[in-house]
């Protein structure tokens, strides 16, 4: 009883803080909207207020799927076809937290589906959200467990599940420090399907009802043939090896440019010339794709300030043929598979700064070996599996990464072998999407899908 009272008190204090923070959130959205217009659209949805009427009744269940950002939306795109097959007549409510996620998610909607922002985690906003949409089930992708949202779903009887779930050691330690708040939220879920056994163990430790480790949905990616063809055409137009800085995060382009403007002690650098001078002699074509669209202009400025000419993808004209430039800047959304297909080797963004790494699976599926920095804690198992399969390399820092990519690009037999192993690596781990959809269908039918109840201790 004392434990329950403390947990209730913790939730009330948390609710007070989120309500007090609401004006700060509104101010943040206004600031973000100046860089990304999407943050200024449908703002009241963030607070559980909707201009459109509630969804009409459908022949199947209303499945609410939350994909906070672009990576989770891409994973949702892999899960949705299997969900629609397993749940005939289902209606989709797709929610997001970021503008890039919402923009990408619009392409996943079918007639009758709806899209909205996930509400800010206050008791009032979450209650209004559930009362308006009346979902039959909620599916949170990967990490998004919020205390008020979980409590509101429990109160309304909406089963809330965590799919493709991951929890790294750092996040696990943080959740343990906030155990009185985090544990009831995790324990109140209807089911958790983890990516790996290590994720499952950490989630169980927080009281989550883990029903299995089904693998990573992102392995189910099947590269789009049209995008692959487009990328191969860009590669041919380059007439030289294409090296990709993929999904680069803030600070990593500056690291990369610092390497390029330094004197590298590499056999691939002629007569002690800098890499900038080597680019002028056309040894490789660099392709840079920032992770976040709001940084496209910034990255262009960084490159031009370093003396590099830049050709932005958005300005390649109707034919899409890349012009001659030191750097191609990938400033389009939805073309990552084309960029990966154009590249001979990719430097993995997010892994050279201490940010945990971005998803390397899509890169590998396109037959592109990855060079990873030291920081891949967000995708630990995928990174280790890629290394073991010979589909990726690990280096200590950006300088070593650039040198490794240059060396691999010039070693054709090794490059071809790693490209083949990259495709085999992704193919060997597919199946999580179908398994997750079947598990959700079983749960909705009242069958097993929930692990035995666990103590919140």
TrEMBL record:
Its main location: membrane. The keyword Transport does not apply. GO terms for cellular component: plasma membrane. Keywords: Cell membrane, Lipopolysaccharide biosynthesis, Membrane, Transferase. Its EC number is 2.4.99.12. It catalyses: lipid IVA (E. coli) + CMP-3-deoxy-beta-D-manno-octulosonate = alpha-Kdo-(2->6)-lipid IVA (E. coli) + CMP + H(+). InterPro entries: Glycos_transf_N (IPR007507), Glycos_transf_N_sf (IPR038107), Kdotransferase (IPR039901). The record marks 142, 218 as: Transition state stabilizer. One of its GO terms (biological process) is lipid A biosynthetic process. Residues 42-221 form the 3-deoxy-D-manno-octulosonic-acid transferase N-terminal domain. Pathway: Bacterial outer membrane biogenesis; LPS core biosynthesis. It is found in: Cell membrane. GO terms for molecular function: Kdo transferase activity. The active site is at residue 72. Belongs to the glycosyltransferase group 1 family. Involved in lipopolysaccharide (LPS) biosynthesis. Catalyzes the transfer of 3-deoxy-D-manno-octulosonate (Kdo) residue(s) from CMP-Kdo to lipid IV(A), the tetraacyldisaccharide-1,4'-bisphosphate precursor of lipid A. This is 3-deoxy-D-manno-octulosonic acid transferase. The lineage of its organism: Bacteria, Pseudomonadati, Pseudomonadota, Betaproteobacteria, Burkholderiales.
């Amino acid at each position: 009883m004392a434990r329950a009272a403390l947990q209730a008190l913790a939730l009330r204090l948390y609710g007070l803080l989120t309500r007090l923070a609401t004006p700060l959130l509104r101010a943040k959205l206004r600031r973000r909207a100046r860089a990304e217009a999407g943050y200024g659209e449908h703002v009241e949805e963030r607070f559980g207020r909707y201009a459109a009427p509630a969804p009409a009744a459908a022949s199947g269940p209303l499945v609410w799927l939350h994909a906070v950002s672009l990576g989770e939306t891409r994973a949702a795109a892999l899960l949705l076809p299997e969900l629609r097959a397993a749940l005939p007549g289902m209606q989709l409510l797709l929610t997001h937290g970021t503008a890039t996620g919402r923009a990408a998610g619009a392409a996943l909607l079918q007639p009758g589906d709806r899209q909205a922002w996930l509400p800010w985690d206050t008791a009032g906003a979450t209650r209004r959200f559930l009362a308006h949409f009346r979902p039959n089930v909620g599916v949170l992708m990967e990490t998004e467990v919020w205390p008020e949202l979980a409590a509101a779903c429990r109160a309304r009887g909406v089963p809330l599940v965590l799919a493709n779930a991951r929890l790294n050691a750092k996040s696990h330690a943080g959740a343990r420090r906030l155990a009185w708040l985090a544990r009831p939220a995790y324990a109140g879920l209807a089911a958790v399907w983890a990516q790996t056994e290590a994720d499952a163990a950490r989630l169980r430790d927080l009281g989550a009802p883990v029903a299995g480790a089904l693998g990573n949905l992102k392995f189910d990616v099947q590269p789009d043939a049209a995008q692959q063809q487009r990328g191969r055409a860009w590669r041919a137009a380059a007439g030289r090896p294409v090296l990709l800085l993929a999904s680069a995060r803030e600070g990593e382009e500056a690291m990369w440019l610092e390497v390029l403007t330094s004197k590298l002690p590499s056999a691939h650098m002629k007569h002690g010339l800098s890499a900038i001078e080597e680019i002028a002699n056309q040894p490789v074509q660099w392709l840079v794709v920032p992770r976040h669209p709001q940084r496209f202009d910034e990255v262009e400025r960084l490159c031009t300030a370093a003396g590099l000419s830049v050709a932005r993808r958005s300005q390649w004209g109707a034919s899409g043929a890349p012009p001659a430039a030191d750097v191609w800047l990938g400033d389009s959304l939805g073309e990552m598979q084309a960029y990966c297909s154009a590249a001979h080797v990719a430097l993995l963004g997010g892994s050279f700064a201490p940010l945990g790494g971005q998803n390397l699976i899509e890169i590998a599926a396109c037959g592109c070996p990855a060079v990873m920095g030291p920081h891949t804690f967000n995708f630990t198992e995928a990174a280790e599996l890629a290394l073991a399969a010979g589909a990726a390399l690990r280096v200590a820092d950006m300088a070593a990464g650039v040198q490794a990519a240059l060396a691999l690009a010039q070693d054709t037999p090794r490059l071809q072998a790693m490209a083949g192993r990259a495709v085999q690596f992704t193919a060997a781990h597919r199946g999580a999407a179908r398994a997750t959809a079947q598990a959700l269908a079983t749960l909705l039918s009242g069958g097993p899908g929930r692990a035995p109840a666990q103590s919140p201790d």
